Amino acid sequence: MSRESVLLFGLGGIGGIYACILQLSGKCDVHVVARSNYNAVKEKGFKLISPKFGNHDGLKFAGVWKSTEEAAASGTKFSYVLCANKALLDAKPSLSDHLQPIITPSLTSIVLLQNGVGAEEPLHKSFPETTVISAVVWTGGKPLPTADGVEQFNREGLTIGVDYRKNGDKAEEDATLEKLVGWLKAGKGDCTVTEDIQSERWVKVIWNCCWNSLTTATRLKTGPFFESSSQALPLCYTVMREVEAVAKAKGLKIEDGTVDKLIKQCTDVAYPGLPSSMMADNFAGRPMEVEVILGTPVREGQRLGVPVPTLTAIYTIVKALDYGNQNAEAAKA
Ligand SMILES: NC(=O)C1=CN([C@@H]2O[C@H](COP(=O)(O)OP(=O)(O)OC[C@H]3O[C@@H](n4cnc5c(N)ncnc54)[C@H](OP(=O)(O)O)[C@@H]3O)[C@@H](O)[C@H]2O)C=CC1
Ligand SMILES: CC(C)(CO)C(=O)C(=O)O
Q1: Residue 297: cis peptide before it, omega within 30 degrees of 0
Q2: Where is the Ketopantoate reductase N-terminal domain (predicted)?
């Protein structure tokens, strides 16, 4: 029997690692959509450097494609499409636009390997019959400067669950998740399965709302930010508590002590502390994940009548930084 196929959309730091984990599992045919690294990956194969998975050179994927259109034209039908591009809710074309050619109804499931909250809703709207699996990524990954592979650092792990669709068959959706998790585990990937993925995503966004936005706006890693003034650490508590209050108002399960734990996880890091992916995107002038990290929590706070004044101010500032990065003329004025 021929093996099922998966497609990795977004072969960067995280997508590269999960393409390798699935490739090493030997359970499925792995195809990738690569953009800036297409030529390197097509010619040389793919490299993984990892303390956990070991070093692998010249991994050959079943298909390397320039776009989802090209992947679809190959005639391959995909059981899963794993999306590890940056979660940019206002991007044109949207993620749904990219996925349109490769979703086969009642076969393909979409898997989000992305930070932030609110990315599932547009996918449910575009693909109401499709299972959407959502994962919180606890993995450190970065593309190699040679563009033909990735380096995995710190830990590797996913907290993963179905973002259940309306009128879907829960048992069927759970079985779809279970099969993917089996493949990831066969590749030595660490998966914690949850039936409440939204609570997990919101815990991570309490973290990202604070550290990503403040490191971006101040251009400082967390260590120098903490020593910059006596107001710095209290601001972190205020931001996190606002997002926590929104999550609780949504009826999500946020354990007591979550904010203290998330602050400690950061203050425990040796000087100079943590940078963030948003800070790196800002330095590089790339679009930032402003909407999924700050915009959705602000809008949900407003919708539910939860005061989010500090978060709104930070959202506005980071949104303006993002606007300046995307509008060179406005930034020069
Ligand atoms: N890296 C990390 O350690 C962590 C990342 N995350 C989250 O994981 C997600 C992925 O992040 P990360 O891997 O770091 O991001 P990267 O920027 O490293 O990778 C994103 C990839 O998506 C590709 N891409 C974007 N749009 C398209 C397109 N239209 N067609 C084809 N390829 C496309 C990019 O291609 P190109 O090179 O051409 O731009 C790039 O290779 C984000 O939500 C991030 O917040 C979460 C935890 C940790
Ligand atoms: C890697 C980590 C956890 C650091 O805050 C992150 O999610 C990010 O930078 O976006």
Answers
A1: no
A2: 7-142
